[in-house]
Amino acid sequence: MFMYRIFILMLAMGVLASCKKPDYQKVINNPALFSEVVHQLNTIVMGNNFTPVVASRNYAYAAVAAYEVISAGDSKHYSSLCGQLNGFNEVAKPAKDAQINFQYAAMVAYCKVGETVTFPAGSMKDYTDSLRNLAKTHGMSDNMLSSSEEYGLAVAKSVLQWSKTDNYFKTRTASKFLVTNVEGRWVPTLPAYTEAVEPHWGEIRPMILKNGKQCTIGPPPIFNVKDRNSRYCREVLYIKNSVDSLTPEQTHIADFWDDNPLKLNVAGHVVFVNKKFSPGGHWMSITGIAAKKAGADFNTTVCAYAKTAIALFDAFIETWAGKYTYNAVRPETVIDKYFDPGWRPHLQTPPFPEYPCGHCTISAAAAKALTSVFGDHIAYTDTSELEFGIKSRSFKSFNEAAKETSWSRFYGGIHFHNSCEVSNVLGTAIGDSVVSKLQMKKK
Predict the structure, then answer these.
(1) Three-state DSSP state, 204
(2) 127-144: pLDDT as tens digits
(3) Whole-number Å distance between alpha carbons of 159 and 179
């Protein structure tokens, strides 16, 4: 954030020095700036240790707010989501004849919702102040600034009011997951033995799907470690043997898609954490990369973020409903107890049940959303992990990336192969449902 503010200050100084005519439209209407706004929220989410599911809520509501502003300013090409999303039936309208820059207003709305829907208000204030200074320095009038901010905040208020009815606050006081000694049931794992994360997330109201169990899946293979020829044992041995002999390429795939927002490291008496973007945050980054590669304008970019964020949000709800229906034990627990004492996966095991695979599901859903905006053959290089010291990977399509994500969880040793395959199918169904029901860009 600090470096970006310095960058904005340098831009402002350059403009003042050269005495250019007002060019705020060129600067503010730049789609790369909106992607930077999303990245800023991504960074704040990461810094506040939010779980992947909670993070998806921030991205979704913020993106919807930005999109609503854009649809109001460009109603010829974009339809409002009001009446399309569950429970979203009212949104503020721009004042008649108000002098509004809808791109700036969209960023104001995004930041306000992004910082308020879960965070305490004010966590993005410095950043929004820098955006305001950028617009003002490049010649946006005080009247347009205030009118744009007024409208952006009004839309944000509408979206925040809607967000309060999605059961999030009710689930904050819901019962915790009950750990038992039943074989095959999930139990906490090393290194922190963290309690189960968000066992009631499946009760959150989706945006497009009817509920957390609309896209149902069958149960995982029956837990059976006594019969070494059982389907379950074959799954166990497949993942154990694969993790024990990973190639450098497989290791890179696992690390690239790890997306563990809070990895706990324990070395003797020393404990420290490594932070990265969550799975949803990674796909938000991919959205920005895709928009740039496609040469998308500001409004299309906002549309892509909104559609992808909605797909991610609904996919997380569906996945978590399944996780706490089957409560499946993780490979690490099974292999350590019944096959190879002391065995550890390549990646750190997340603190929630194994089946279905969350990353596999949400990635397939996000891929479908992005494909609906940019097409199925947009090749791109994903540079999202460079800031975490992991080299980039290139893909021929979003669906190819989603399929690799499924393999990454298997190579990481945290999901059985069956789970990865089933979850990719589940995510595809969720993504298709979201895409088919959402009417955003008019034909």
Answers:
(1) coil
(2) 999 999 999 999 999 999
(3) 37
By C-alpha distance, which of 15, 16, 123, 28 is closest to 69? Answer: 28
Q: State the burial class of residue 139 (Cβ atoms within 10 Å of its Cβ: 0-12, 13-18, 19+).
A: middle
Environment class of 208 (CB within 10 Å of its CB; exposed 0-12, middle 13-18, buried 19+): buried
CATH code at 226? 1.10.606.20
Closest CA to 58 of 106, 115, 6: 115
Q: How many domains does the chain have?
A: 2
132 occurs within a structural domain: yes
The token pair that represents 118 in the structure block = 């879960």
Looking at the fold, whether 294 and 365 belong to one and the same domain comes out as yes
Cα pseudo-dihedral 121, 126, 131, 136, rounded to 10: 110
Amino acid at 342: G
Q: Are residues 140 and 186 in the same domain?
A: no
Which of 138, 166, 194 is a domain's end point?
A: 166
pLDDT exceeds 90 at position 86: yes
Contact between 103 and 151 (Cβ < 8 Å): no
pLDDT grade for 5, boundaries at 50, 70 and 90? very low
pLDDT above 50 for 6: no
Show Cβ contacts of residue 161 under 8 Å, excluding neighbours closer than 6 positions.
none
Nearest CA to 195 out of 203, 206, 187 is that of: 187
How far is 406 from 423, CA to CA, in rounded Å?
8
- 266 forms beta bridges with 271
pLDDT digits (tens, 9 = 90+) for 215-245: 889 999 999 999 999 999 999 999 999 999 9
> In this structure, are 367 and 426 located in the same domain?
yes
Q: Is residue 214 part of a domain?
A: yes
* Same domain? 25 vs 158: yes
Range of the domain at 262: 174-437
The residue to which tokens 């899946």 are assigned: 217
> What is the chain's alpha carbon radius of gyration, rounded to the nearest angstrom?
22
pLDDT of 3 reads: 43
pLDDT per residue as tens digits for the range 258-269 = 999 999 888 787
Q: Give the pLDDT confidence of 361-382 residue by residue, as tens digits.
A: 999 999 999 999 999 989 999 9
| 373 and 273 together in one domain | yes
Rounded CA-CA distance 349/358 in Å is 13
